[in-house]
Every structure is written in C-alpha cells, then in structure tokens.
Amino acid sequence: MKHLAIDIGASSGRAIVGEVVDGKLNLTEVYRFDNGLVERGGHLCWDIDALAENVIAGLVAAHEQGLTPETVGIDTWAVDYVLLDEAGERIGDTVAYRDGRTEGVREDLERAGVLSFAEHYERSGIQFQRFNTAYQLVAQKREHPEELERARIFLMIPDYLGYVLTGVAANEYTNASTTALVGARSRTWDDELIERLGLPRGIFQRILEPGEALGQLVPAVRERVGFDATVIAPATHDTGSAWLAVPAADPAAAYLSSGTWSLLGCENTEPVTTPASARANFTNEGGAYGTYRYLKNIMGMWMVQSIRRELGPRADGKLPSFDTLIDEAFAAHGDFPLLDVDADRFLAPDSMVEEVRAACREAGGPVPEEPGELVRCVYDSLAADYARAISELGELTGVPRTCVNIVGGGSQNRYMNQATANACGVPVFAGPTEGTALGNLIVQLIASGEVADLAAAREMVRASFDVRRIDPQH
C-alpha cells in the first residue's frame, strides 16, 4: 500500500509518498511548493486558497507519477484557524500567528479578572505564547465580533484542508490541544474556559484522535485528482508527527524537532501542570496514542531563514544555500553576544538583520556584519537556549537528559548539531531529516494495519534511515 503525507510548514510544503518495502519505509517526494505570509486588511495572513490548491496538486502529482495512495494525511503548524459560516463558506482572512493582533490580550484578561494565566495553564497545560489560539479568538472577537457571530464551524489549518478534501468538519486532537482550550487531562474541549472567554461553544467540532478516518474524497476533488483515497487524521500538528518519528533508544533522551521552530522536550504519559512548569513556560501538547509532548517552543531557524531572504541574491543571482551559510558560520570569527532568541522582537521584525545587530549593540558585544557572523551569532544563541531548556527539562521531570535526538530539516545543519552538543554537553543524534512526514506516514501505516504499533514503527525508522552521532567538543 502507498500512503501520502502532505507536510506543510511556514515556508514550504511537500507531498511525500511512503511505502513499506522489505521491512523498510521508502519515501518519494512527488511535489513541493512555497508558503509564506501575505498582508491583507492590515494583518499578516496565510493564503489559504493557495494552500488548498497545492494540497490537491500534491495528490495529482502522486497519481501522475504512478504512486497513487490509498490513504492521505495532512499536517501543518499549530494555533492558526479558519471559521466557516452556516453554508460552509469561509469567514474573513486566515490571520497568521506572527500577526500582532494578540498583543496584550493575556494581560487584559488578567486585569479584568476573566482568567489568570496560572489557572489557564493548570487547566490546559499549554505554555504562554502571545499567539495562542485562545488569545487569537479573543482578539478577533474584539475587532470583528460579527465574524464570530456568523461562525458555525471552527477548524485548525490542517482540519480545514481535510475539510476541503472530504467535506467533513472535525478537530484533530494534537492540533486542538494547542488552542489552550482543551483540558490537559480530559483531552476534550474545556467548556468552562470557552465560556469564560466569551467564545461560542457550538463552533468547536468533535475531536478526532490520530489514526481516525476523516472520510473519502468528495466527488469534485476525486474528479480532479483521478482517484479516491481515505483521508486519515495523522498527528496534524507537525511537531506531533515529528515526535512520533524520533528513533530514540534511550528513555532519558531529549527530543528536538528542528525547523522554522525548535520544539525541545520529551514524551510523557501524563501532563505536568505544576506552578514550576508554568514558570518555566513548558507546554503539554497532546500527542498520539495517549502521550503528551512536554516541550518548550524555541525560535528555531526562522531567524536565519529571514536573514537569508533579506540579504538577497549573490553574484549568481541566487540566494545563498543554507550549506553555504553554514560554511560561512564555521569560518566566522568573533565572540558575539548570546541573544534571547525567544524575545518578541524577533517574531516578525521589519529587518531581522538590523534587529540582530541592534540586540548585539544593546548587549554591549561585537556587532556581526558579514552573513557568516550574523548566522553564527544566531546559531550560537539557539544552542545556548537549547542547553537552558534541557537543564530545565531535567529539573522539572526529575530525569537528567543523556542525549539529544534531533529530527527535521534542522538535523542536517552541521554547525547547529555541533554547537548543540557543545552547549548541552551530551551527544547529539541527528536524523532522520523527514521527521514530520515520517510521523504522518507512521499514523497512516498503523491505521492501515501495516505496522502493529508505535514501538514497531520507531524500530522501522531506525532500520530505514541513517542517524548521525555528534559528540561534544571542548
């Protein structure tokens, strides 16, 4: 059987067909596309229509290449959403988490006595980020109350894309958990939280667990792509999928899903919602198969992606490759300040280059001028942040972390892998690169009965893909 993973990130998406051959999982990328923010109505938004068209184009590409899948799964980032009216039509723009509309919402709720973050965290287990879905909905209600009044259906981004394919409206658990509106222990909508925030309870749909079937392709999509398939809900939050593909053999390993964002933590079977955990701003995102991803969201490669775009093409008319920037980081010299990469100033500045330089000036250290210096400054700052998070993780769970398993595109970054090993003082195991797509496919394989369970799937990942060990150098 062939299975199709549609894996969409903040900067790009791809369609990857997976098939088990001789006990190993073979991957074939059949389609790739760009993604990014657009400005609409004074807000930073996603082009949701383009995303939907690219999902369908991925299905067409698989079929045209003779790799017609029997099942399809879609994963994306978290927190962002779409509202539909009574006719199933979209309401308003799909505002992105990097938009500034949620500035001050948490503080306003606390001042008004509506909801303290301490109670919010105890109930939902979700860390504070100014763009949490709960805050986005409150911000939308303030700016456009008429939109929430018209709304009948709330869907996260991958839920909506699944709705386009099947016509079925449902909320998958791993992504729904990131709304901060789902009970950490109940694993379902927290009606009291929803009521206290003044949100309409009726818009929230039934929650699907990863592995449940959403439905078959609607006739219009089936006609366009040339085949029918079952759409399976994977862990639709990309980190949830990436976590499933971590081939860690050590129970004391730290997991790091490295891409536009860095998600660092471990896998638990119970949420940790203590005051100490809240102060450390660790989150308990829902995982597949009864698990929780206990982790911290760290800025990730977004800063370098932004610097690369901003610096523009070189003499050959092309943007420098990430490998070129990595080589230049290795060659750069200078003891640059370690920046707080999680500061709001780096979420969506007008100029990432100037924001990094300004932060270095404010810290009283050397200011990076050349591309390699800028990239090295960011990479070293990220590695220092990873080390702090791993130390906190050990304290909060009572389990010192003995290694770091890195999956995702960032696992290819030679500089970051070594800097992480050095900063954390433990070995790094890098790979597989396609962690998110792999996790997406794992759920489809288990749902289809081709793989017995998660343990068997992770063993197959270890047998199918190279994992590199990087030891600390001091």
Q: Can you walk me through this structure?
A:
The chain has 474 residues and is of the alpha+beta class. The protein is built from 18 helices and 21 strands. 50% of the residues are buried. The longest helix is centred in the C-terminal third of the chain and has 27 residues, at 371-397. Strands 17-18-16-15-19-20-21 form a 7-stranded mixed sheet, with helices on both faces. A 6-stranded mixed sheet has the order 3-2-1-6-14-13, with helices on both faces. A 3-stranded antiparallel sheet has the order 4-5-9, with no helix packed on it. It starts with a strand and ends with a strand. It has 2 domains: 3-236, Nucleotidyltransferase, domain 5 (2-Layer Sandwich), CATH 3.30.420.40; 248-431, ATPase, nucleotide binding domain (Nucleotidyltransferase, domain 5), CATH 3.30.420.40. The model has no long low-confidence stretch (mean pLDDT 96).
